[in-house]
Write a structure and sequence with these properties.
- It is built from 7 helices and 5 strands, in the order E-H-E-H-H-E-H-E-E-H-H-H.
- It is an alpha/beta fold.
- The chain has one domain: Rossmann fold.
- It has a 5-stranded parallel sheet, sandwiched between helices.
- Helix 1 links the parallel strand 1 and strand 2.
- It is elongated and about 65 Å long.
Amino acid sequence: MNRLKGTLAYLAGPMDEVPDLGRDWRLEIQEFLWSLGVGVLNPCDKPTELGKEDEDLQRLTLLLRADAEDFEAQGKIEMADACYEQIEELMNPIVSVDFAMVDRAGFIILYVDKDYHMCGSYSEETLAVLQKKPVIICCKQGKWCIPNFLFKRKGRHKTMFSNWKQVREYLFSVAHDEEVDDLGVWKFFDYEKVYGKNSESIYS
């Protein structure tokens, strides 16, 4: 029995201000998820050519922000606005693809690191909650440091953890234990009914 086989997980967490753009923890957890037969939607390695987010984009947006600051200081508002419009053009497809991946995911893993400002990750988490999806949260500083707003759904503290070992143990239990305390959030599907005779070849 593996309840998670064939599902999709989206990996949410800080990217903009993190030196490695958030790659390291995602690469580590995705190997574990693959071992469970879970597909991984990784914003650092998008399964599409649209909305790529990398060092080049980071450098460009930083330059545009610096230029906008200078233009505003000089009273050149139209030129500053042109910089902001370029940032919008760059970010619109990125955010669109990220939200699309949240839509397609069966569950979300959110990494909280309070050393860095997080913005999009909280939007993705809220979208997942509105869609009634499980959200597994790992906080670098410890479960007790998770922001109060993330405790917005009754019982969800049971899916909050202080390290990746705890996250792996929880997901392994969801996949394999006879009984799962699903908090009314986990919804498991019989993929033989969804894909018929092709299900074994698709998810084997």
